[in-house]
Amino acid sequence: MSHYYPRTLRVLSSAVLLAANLFTLPAAAAQTGVTRTDLQRHDLSAPGREAVQVRVDLAPGVAFGRHSHPGEEIIYVLAGAIEYDVEGKPPVTLKAGDVLFIPAGAVHAAKNVGVETASELATYIVAKDKPLLTLAK
Questions:
Q1: Under 8 Å CB-to-CB from 21, ≥6 apart: which residues?
Q2: Residues 6+ away with beta carbon under 8 Å from 99
Q3: What digits encode the pLDDT tens for the residues 50-64?
Q4: For residue 122, what are the CA distances in angstroms to 40, 69, 75, 76, 119?
Q5: Euclidean distance between CA atoms 32 and 44, whole angstroms
Q6: Boundaries of each Cupin type-2 domain copy (predicted)?
Q7: Does the structure show a pLDDT above 90 at 24?
Q8: Each residue of 95-137: pLDDT tens digit?
Q9: Domains of the chain: total
Q10: Which domain holds residue 107?
Q11: How, if at all, do strands 71-79 and 99-102 pair?
């Protein structure tokens, strides 16, 4: 029976992460063609800060509207081609293997400009007491 313990722990941990994400993401962030998979969430040594890693998959032609985060976002594109529009900078299209740094509070948007599903690994270094994502008005 003991060989099932690590698997049970992983399943429970994943459920807790999913529940935590559901409470920190606004309902409007869950849109058709966008899949967010929480990978990990950990407190940092800096008081009140946490690191969150999420895989984001965008269907072809799908855009995720203008939004911001209460901390920095570090992006690594896993697959496809994604156009990022960060306020105050010209839009940039990144492909698998490319990276992008988005400063804390910067309003930005992303769009899959390819013909296949595009994926990114998003790492957030954010304040724990604020929603992970806020849609821009």
A1: 36, 38, 54, 132
A2: 74, 75, 76, 77
A3: 999 999 999 999 999
A4: 11, 11, 5, 7, 10
A5: 32
A6: 55-119
A7: no
A8: 999 999 999 999 999 999 999 999 999 999 999 999 999 999 8
A9: 1
A10: 2-135
A11: antiparallel
